[in-house]
Amino acid sequence: MMDEMAIPMVVDSLKDLEDFPLTRCIYYAAEVDEAATETGEPIDLKGLGVPLLMLGFAGIIYRPVGDQTRFSSAEAIEQTFDRIEADPRLYVRTRSIWLANTLLLVKGPPAEQCRGAVFRIGRGLYFRALQFARGTVTREQFVATAEDYASQVEHSPQETDAFARWAEMQVDKARNAYHAEPEMALPYSDDRDLSGFQKGDES
To answer: Largest alpha-carbon pair distance within the chain?
Structure first.
């Protein structure tokens, strides 16, 4: 049975090399602004309403706000991130880890390993991946023992779709913001009017 606190991982880059058969995955964490810790004030997250798997001063985001256990829609992702960042001491950022290709390849057809596919991984595998990232286990050891964690990996089609649509929402937001305030945009070579950009201003 999959860990109730399994972490959603988004495939970012698969490296199919003989000496580096690993896939980089990204995940999301809520982190405490350093300035917030300088006051010495205790940070109470009980009222946040978002379950977080704590790791130092960061909380791994593994489920949405509310009763759902998985991100079923782009709106659920947006609502969760907005709830976290409504607290001025917190912000959402991406982190990354490497997973052995075999853990992902055995789970389904090649389409599931494309960039943007979402897999849920158990905490045991996550902390093993952290050991590799920190250099406490070698690449050879990490790859050789990967199959020991095969039961802690599960493809999540619904979340693959949700995170893809959420990413599209972010692009649309950025595009709309650009058109809403064109005077804030930096000029580039395809601009027709660069009258305010003099040669030598590149620095």
So the answer is: 63
